[in-house]
Structures are given as structure tokens and as C-alpha cells.
Amino acid sequence: MATRAEVAKLAGVSASTVSYALNGDRSIKEETRKRVLKAVAQLNYRPNFAAGALAGGKSKTLALLSPSGEFGIALIALEYINGASAAARDRGYHLVIWPSQESELAEIQTFAESGMISGVILMEIQFKDERVDYLKKAKVPFAMIGRTEKPGKDSYVDRDFIGATELGIDYLDSLGHKKIAFLTTDRAVGVDTRFSSALVEAAKKKKMIAKKIQVVNEASSGRDAFIEFHKKYPDFTAVVSLNDIATLGFISGANEYGVKIPKDLSIVALDTPQNHIEMSWPPLTTVNLPAFEMGAKASNILIDQIEQRENKQNQALLAGELVIRGTTAKARKSI
Amino acid sequence: MATRAEVAKLAGVSASTVSYALNGDRSIKEETRKRVLKAVAQLNYRPNFAAGALAGGKSKTLALLSPSGEFGIALIALEYINGASAAARDRGYHLVIWPSQESELAEIQTFAESGMISGVILMEIQFKDERVDYLKKAKVPFAMIGRTEKPGKDSYVDRDFIGATELGIDYLDSLGHKKIAFLTTDRAVGVDTRFSSALVEAAKKKKMIAKKIQVVNEASSGRDAFIEFHKKYPDFTAVVSLNDIATLGFISGANEYGVKIPKDLSIVALDTPQNHIEMSWPPLTTVNLPAFEMGAKASNILIDQIEQRENKQNQALLAGELVIRGTTAKARKSI
DNA sequence: GAGTTTTATCGACACGCGTCGACAAGTAGT
DNA sequence: ACTACTTGTCGACGCGTGTCGATAAAACTC
What we know:
44% helix, 434 Repressor (Amino-terminal Domain), alpha/beta, 6-stranded parallel beta sheet, homodimer, 16% strand, Rossmann fold, DNA-binding, 3 domains
């Protein structure tokens, strides 16, 4: 592999000039720069990663902390990872996946100090999240996908819950649905309640009746939810789901009981990653979760922060778009 | 962050002695080593990553090439990533996710040469895979999850197709199923045919009738498959599925047509990642795909290779285990 | 006990880059 | 014409580690 010195020789300049020509930290005559770039291309030169990190103290590597649950990384994480990884690459950074237990939190700091890592992306943020507190104390730059109860000035990317629910509700309203139920996992006050309270608000605006059905993140729970729904709200015509896996179970339940989707019952899913949509039949109408974009945005925000562009926006909310597929239709005339 | 020099001073030895004490490349008096380790612990010293890479030419970083399909990283990839990442960490390595287009293949080589990457893990291996050819030519160490038609001495981890299908078939046999269908995506000769031909063999051994139903990797295709199955093979009592997503559609179809699972029809899925199981109702009986272990094994094989432990086994086949859940029961008495 | 090998340690250097200070040449202001 | 900047370039140094050669001490050999 070519080194800086070789490029310098070929271009007839000094080694440091090559550096400046490439990084643009000092003014360089345009003609010289061109000569350098030509030499770079000719030799297929690429700055040595380790040397750069050593000399400059910048590793250009981001860590994505993934709380490894029972099944490891959560499904949705895939698209975050994809987005974050692609955006990082576009800016000359790398993304390493860091399956983390809580016990390993201290390790992150050590690695950050050892130059391995420039910043951290966190997912599955809790209302109160000790990881956030820790990283702040340790002065490791970080960005969240999701947000804590009071994010303050911390960097984050999150869903625009209000926008997303309104997209779904307004669409159901336009189809004539007036009595709906919604599936949610929220138990106590926490991250999940952001969605359900936004939904209640949106429904109220449209003068809909919206009843809550509690689920957990399992297909079987979705099926139970259908049974509950079927019994308690026989005259309801639509369901909004805030949990992707339960949705699939819910549809199974409907199939099982002979309730036709979308003729008898419409379903809109609000928090379903792209990859899950292909797994349902009929294909789900969703307000899609722009997970790829969220991951990408998280990377960009984090890199801005690392590079000290403090003027830049470091918080973002993304709503997603309504994508009409096969689980919604006009409300059947109410009984 | 503490440096090697500080550790040396505290331990009362030279800097190089610290190196040798930690890396064990030269003999060190046991007492000295202990003193060094104590100092290391005391200062919470961790060798600077970049410096190590620069001096030693070893970056201790693995790249996992993920062919970014339509939806980015494939679902199953998650567990591979988890496993590979965890195993890498245990051996002091890092795993970066590399969303790759074919066009970027050359980039990998450059990065490998620039010291950024020590080796590559490949997934979604094709029978003929140009990436494999490229990496071999470029002399970048690599390991495959899956394998090419003729892997030769290349490192790989793959499923034990024969073992996995036999587990599934033998179980169905023990339940009295004698006429089965199987869902598969194989069209031409390729990776997918490994599974179906193993299945045909296993069925023959048990004197079962096994009919093939062609699907593609979509839920709707699985539903179509059910309809085909229902019409063509009304007296068949079991289905083996080799495609996870189609399986879910197949079950939807069964629900829709009032065919009760497992009473009327048993289903065994052979290639279903853990994360998909939770999405079906009833819960799927599977021969589980040990994806985490496969990822971990791939890391370990690759690291062995990078560190030149050539004596070690560099190919492995994993069968998985039969996990009985809710989609299998004794065969209904045949008509 | 002289010669030889082994063990344990040290000092020095190289890896390739970022960046600071120096300096020559050019430009602007008076 | 003198000073005061600015622009463009270079040489030198340091980042923290791996590792080679040298050396002193210890352990064998006959």
C-alpha cells in the first residue's frame, strides 16, 4: 500500500503538503492540490487508518450499543444498523456493533479513551436510562435512537409520534371508521406511552371512539387481543396497532375466527419495520417507520457532534409516510 | 488514559517488558509479570488500539459484508451478526458491519491493505460467488457463512442440511406422517437445492411420499402454496418448510381455509431463525437454525486463520436441534 | 571453572500520519 | 519604501505500540 511519502514524492511536494491538500486544513494552491490528488489516484493511496487515529486522536469509528436481549439484537435494529452504517461510511466513519450488557458499560469508556471509538449510538432508550447518564459523565459523545423522558440538549433521533398517529387516524377517518381499538404495550408511564397518548389525542380530534387493548410483544398476545376485541367491541370497524409482532398474531386470530380483513375489519400498523410487512397476509397498511433514515440521521448527528459542529441541529423527529396496502378498506356500515 | 510507559514506571520495569508481559511473546519471570499485571489493573490500562495496529500491522477488526438487498440486511443476518460480534469481542477483535454493493468490492481490498480490516466474513453465499474469487485473489482472509459449490479449503460455517432434515423427517415419521409436501425456493441448481435434495433423501429413507411445492421468499407466496397444497394433496398430513417467510403465509392460508393446525395438518420449519418463531401462531415446531453459533464459529475460524493457526479446523457444519412447539401432532388417520 | 546455552530484561527504532512553527514569497496599507 | 499581514510550503516532532538486537544474569555442560 502506498504511503503519504510516496504520494509526496510523485507529486513533487512534501509529505505535510499532501496532508493539507487532502484534509484542507490549510490553504493550498489549487494547482498543487490537483497534482497531489492525481498522485493519490495513481497510487491508489488511502491514508492508513491506524496511523491517522494515532496521530490525530480520531478513530473515525462509531459504536452502536445494542442491548442484547433474549434473542440478541432486536429485529427493528437491523434497519437502524443499516442506515447508521451507510451514513457513517459516507462520511468516512465506520460502525462497529457492540452487543452490550450493562456490566460492560465501563468498558465503553475505556475503549473510547483508548482511541478505539469516537462516539456511541444508543438504541432502545428508556425513560430513565442509566447508559445515558453514564456516557454523559464519561464525556463520550453519543446520540440516541429514541429519547429519554427529558432529553434536554442531548442528541437524538426519534419518531414523530404525533405526526405518525395523525397520518393513520386521519386515513381511517377518511374511510369512515369511527370506532376503533388500538393495541399497545404501554403499562406504566414510559416510552411506549408517547405513542398511545398521541393516538388518543388524534382520535379525539376526529371525534372517534378509541379503546385501548393491552398486549405484550408476542404473537400469542396479539391473538389473545383479537379474541378480546371480538368479544368486547363487535361493532368496531378498525384497529390501530402500535406493536408489530402482536399485529401478526392479531391477524392470525382474525383469520381463525373468520373475520375478513379488510372487508370486516381494517388494520393500520404504526410501528412496523419494513421487514415485518412482508411477513403478513394480507400485506399491512402502515405508517411506515423510517428506520433506515433514523439510523442514518443518528450517525450524522453524532458525527457533527464529534467534529464539533455545534451549530447544527442535533435533534430530529421523523414521522414516516402512510403506505396503503391490503388491510384497510371502507368501514362496513355499522350495526 | 494510561500509557504503556506509565505502567512500566509503576511496575518498575521497562516499557518493552510490559509489552512482553502482556503479549507473552518472550519469557518473563512470573513475579515480574504479576507486578506488571497489578500495575495494569491499578491504572486501568488498555493498550491503545491505533498504536497497536500501526506498530504491529494488526487492526484486530473484522468486517462482516452484508449484501444490502431491497430491505437492507436480511433478517436472519441479525443472529449471525450477534454471534460473530460476540465471539470477536471475546478474542479481542471488533466487528464492523459493511453494507456492500458489488461495486464496492475493490474498496474492501484497499481497506484491508490500509490496515483497517484484518479479515472478512461473508454471508448469503452463492454457488458461484464472485466475492469469494475476489477476496482470494486479493489475499484478504475471509470466512463464509454458507458455502460455495466447491469450497475446497476455504473457511466456512454452514448448516448440516442432511442432519437437519433428518431430524425433522424422523420426527414426522414418528408421528405417523407418511405423505408430506415441502416448500422450497430452489429453482435452478444452487445453494437452496442442498436442502431440498437432503429432504428428498431423508423422506426416501423413511418411505414417505414427499412432493415439492415451489415458493418464493414472500408471505403471499406461502399463502398461494397453501392453496395449491390444499387442492392437489388433500390427503397429505404434513408440510416441511424450507423458507421462513413463506411459512407464515402458508399458515395464514390454512387459517383462512379453516384447516386446523396441528390437528389437521402438521408443519415443521427447517430454516427459521429464532426471531421469526415468535411471530407465528401457533408457535412453530422447528429444527432450529443455530444462527448465533454459526456467526460465532465464523468469527473464530476467521481469527484462527488471521493468526495463522492453520492446524485448526476451518470448516464446520451445524445441524441445530428439533424444537417441538405447537404446529405438529399425530397424523390424522388417512382418508 | 571455563565455555556455552538459556532466561529475563532493556533501549532503540519504526510504523504513517496530523500538526505546529518556521519561512519565503506575495499582497495591502501607509 | 517600510511594515503588517496572508498565502503556500516545508521540516520536524510526537502519538503509543510491537519487536529486534544487545546485554547481564543464571543455568547448564564436560
